[in-house]
Design brief:
single chain; 218 residues; mainly alpha; two-stranded antiparallel sheet; 4 strands
Length: 218
């Protein structure tokens, strides 16, 4: 018998795949966090993001499977060191879904959002005043900060998109468009992110979900 099999050290193929994706996701986070450091340095005093500023933590948004898998890893890691805190995160996730159960434009069993134009229009108005379940309401800080979705990581500094340069409304107050453009640092890591998302979707199917469903393991 293969000694590796006998020793029980060989992981099932799916577990190996998820382990590899987690490793490469770590590489992606290093790339994006380096981008964020540069963007914050270039923005200087015009950027006011920091602990306790949680305006961007209110309102539900879509996440892909890579974000969902990362959040689940983060919740498991939190449960290992602080089970009560992790349980509070789960309770907030369940309460968030209960508050908005009748309006979710997706499959309540799988947690996946429908992709029709009508569903997408409904999602624009869905739970815009709902705090993220990962947000601790007392400290106004993220309980899963190191594992937060990509949208959270890149929000705040100037960010180029198909609709132009966007920036958090609390940052660059009174700055001219030229000042905002001068602070722009081109985002990096998109190709690696797309590769990992595509790999996960090949293994598990396509579709986006929301943070609450991801935390509850949908």
């Amino acid at each position: 018998m293969n000694p590796r099999l006998q020793s029980g050290t060989v992981l099932p193929r799916r577990a190996q795949s998820e382990s590899e994706i987690a490793r490469r996701d770590g590489e992606l986070l290093q790339i994006v966090d380096q981008w964020a450091n540069e963007a914050y340095q270039r923005g200087g005093a015009n950027i006011h993001c920091g602990k306790g500023c949680a305006q961007c933590c209110v309102g539900v948004f879509a996440i892909h499977r890579l974000d969902a898998l990362r959040l689940q890893r983060g919740l498991n890691a939190l449960a290992d060191i602080d089970p009560e805190r992790a349980q509070r995160v789960l309770q907030r996730a369940a309460a968030s879904l209960e508050h908005n159960v009748g309006d979710f434009p997706g499959d309540m069993d799988t947690g996946l959002l429908y992709e029709t134009p009508e569903a997408q229009a409904l999602f624009e108005e869905y739970a815009n005043d709902e705090p993220c379940p990962a947000l601790d309401p007392e400290t106004q800080s993220c309980d899963l900060y190191a594992y937060r979705p990509m949208t959270c990581r890149v929000y705040g500094p100037p960010l180029d998109s198909a609709d132009g340069i966007g920036v958090c409304e609390l940052n660059f107050a009174g700055a001219s468009p030229e000042e905002v453009s001068a602070a722009l640092v081109p985002l990096r890591g998109q190709e690696l992110e797309e590769e990992l998302v595509a790999r996960l979707e090949r293994n598990s199917g396509c579709g986006k979900t929301i943070v609450a469903f991801a935390l509850l393991g949908a």
